[in-house]
Amino acid sequence: MDQRWDDAMTLALTMAAHSPWPDPNPRVGCVIIAEGRVVGQGWHRGAGTPHAEVEALHQAGSEARGATAVVTLEPCNHTGRTGPCSHALLDAGIARVVIAQSDPNPVASGGEQWLRAHGVEVVTGVLRTKATALNADWTFSQIHRRPRVCWKYAASLDGRSAASDGTSQWITGEQARHQVQLGRSQCGAIVVGTGTALADNPRLTVRLPGLTRQPLRVVVGLRDLPADYHLRDGSAPTLCIRSHDPMEVLDQLWHRGIHRVWLEGGAHLAGAFLAAGMVDEVLAYIAPMVLGDGAAAAMDPTVTTLSQAHHFVIDDVAQLGPDIQIHAHHE
């Protein structure tokens, strides 16, 4: 395997990691190499800003002519908020483009073919796996045309998310709750049903030092929330979707540029997403207690016998203080 561009692509991936996440656009980095030297580098700073290639070309200036552009994602070939990067690379005189990941977005893809057709040498697949992992949620959403859904729940050893009187704070300890805050910060939207919103009056915000971006809070269902509830306090954007259809919910979020959704409750909404086949990951926090009665973590009426169960593959198990965190993905 040709590994001559690995070091340059590693640098481009380092650049890409500076891009905001989550964001409607993917994280992309670019470096420009001329006579063995890095003469330009850049990364995408968020939707509506210049793409990584344009930033790197601007820094390289006239040294871009005859140089190699190493970019983590196939240069776009369409005009959106910004012009096509494939054209910008050609106009700058770039002689070779090295690409990690091909663009799965049919609207923006085609840059590789366009560059080749115009005489630019193109090398593909350099550190493809690492580049794809950097934009795993974005890549999933481009392929499936919907956000990836992670169902997060906390429960007792006997699978109860609340006691029989409805109390649920706090089933898990401080370390598990801190991990939940981190997880929220990495999603575009947090989704709950109106039952959970009315019963728990949650904030659904990220409360971590130094983090100011808040995910979209989404309430699914037909009932209204009182004006004094936290979800209507303006501390984070909130969207009410008057539907019980998981696909309709995800379609609305997809068109808002959201690529990762956290499904946080309640049991009926989780069951609806499971029944629709719209749960891609599960993040379960299990506390060492037995409640004996109370609300189950999920209620899916379509499962009436063992053969109808939803199956997942466990990726990781970790202990967080007294609690267990289980991460799994759909088979």
TrEMBL record:
Residues 3-123 form the CMP/dCMP-type deaminase domain. This is Riboflavin biosynthesis protein RibD. Pathway: Cofactor biosynthesis; riboflavin biosynthesis; 5-amino-6-(D-ribitylamino)uracil from GTP: step 2/4; Cofactor biosynthesis; riboflavin biosynthesis; 5-amino-6-(D-ribitylamino)uracil from GTP: step 3/4. It comes from the Bacteria. The gene is ribD. Binds 1 zinc ion. It catalyses: 2,5-diamino-6-hydroxy-4-(5-phosphoribosylamino)-pyrimidine + H2O + H(+) = 5-amino-6-(5-phospho-D-ribosylamino)uracil + NH4(+); 5-amino-6-(5-phospho-D-ribitylamino)uracil + NADP(+) = 5-amino-6-(5-phospho-D-ribosylamino)uracil + NADPH + H(+). Substrate binds at residues 168, 184, 204, 207, 264. It comes from Cutibacterium porci.
